[in-house]
Amino acid sequence: MTVAHPEPHPQHEPRVKQHFRDLPLRVGTRGSPLALVQTRHFLRLLEHFCPVLRAFDVFDQQAIRTTGDMVQDRPLADIGGKGLFAKEIHEALLDRRIDFAVHSLKDLETRLPEGVELACTLPREDARDVLILGPGCGTACAEAPLDALPAGAVIGTSSVRRQAQLLHLRPDLAMVGLRGNVQTRLARIAEGACTASLLALAGLRRLGIEAAGAVVLDPAFMVPSAGQGIIGVTVRADDTELRELLGGIEDPEAKAVSSAERALLDALDGSCRTPIGGHAVLLPGGLLRLTGLVARADGSFLLRRTIEGAAADAVRIGRELGLALRADSPADLFV
Q: How many angstroms separate the CA atoms of 30 and 125, rounded?
């Protein structure tokens, strides 16, 4: 992927030397191949921004196994939702076993535990989803990607967001749970465990994987998950020096779009069983366009709306759209 490097800031060097003269910077993340790639990408950006870090053995990477990674035989909704991909990482941060943590922002709960803050977001990779067609599927085209799926095709996905949008268009499809890292899911598709599945394009690109039978889905066709394609870094709220350092590599565009998308989620306050999508883009003239979606998991109800406003008002835009979607949706969606 294309790496946007922030400008180096030599004035941070004396402070960094003083702050880390006794201990290395301990960075925590999940142990999946994608999480480790994302962490290395983040550390390269940090070293570029603060070149003195290259001269010190300051980084101690710690792969932390989360509940979401350990429990693979049940849907996330049944074991507590997507926050389970961060629970143990938050605990390590608050216990001072690590100094900061690297996350896929879409897996990070909207309301963080007390004492944990989102310090920065990195430039967004492509936010779109990809339909991965297995053996037996027809030829797909971007304009009508689902035409490649035979009647009654079995779709492997544990995402209620993806499931709802597919079933809304193709109620004949059958859904089965499919979890695991990117490589595991691709292998399961290839061996015929399901007819097709969906993955985030950002993950494939970061891993350098060219998946056979991949069809990129337009966000107008499949609304992505809020925060998809963005790396977020959390720190302890009381670590002001590290927060200041990380703030220097904050990507303004990622901050604006993620702020809108996460405010949308916060306003909807849906459970992990509620299909919700959110996708924001910056427009010329300092404007931001946000698309939000809520649905039933079986696809029988789906509401999609778009709103525009000043990018500086990203949080307000997200909240406004979230409240509007909530007001016009069945109340039981958010129980």
A: 19
- Per-residue pLDDT, 180: 84
Structure confidence by residue, pLDDT tens digits, 267-308: 998 667 899 999 999 999 999 999 999 999 999 999 999 999
Decide: 72 and 180 in contact? Cβ < 8 Å.
Answer: yes
For 266, other C-beta atoms within 10 Å of its C-beta total 15
Residues in the chain where the model's pLDDT stays below 50:
1-3, 14, 17
Question: Buried b / exposed e across 167-182, counting CB within 10 Å, b at 16+?
Answer: bbebeebebebbbebb
Q: Which two tokens stand for residue 217?
A: 């889905």
Tokens of 124: 């967004």
Catalytic residues: 107
CA 286 from chain centre, in angstroms, equals 24
The structure tokens listed for 27 are 């960075």
Taking each helix axis from N to C terminus, what angle separates 182-190 and 33-49, rounded to the nearest 10 degrees? 140
**Per-residue pLDDT, 48:** 86
Place of tokens 């927060």: 243
CA distance 274 to 297: 7
Q: What is the pTM of this model?
A: 0.88
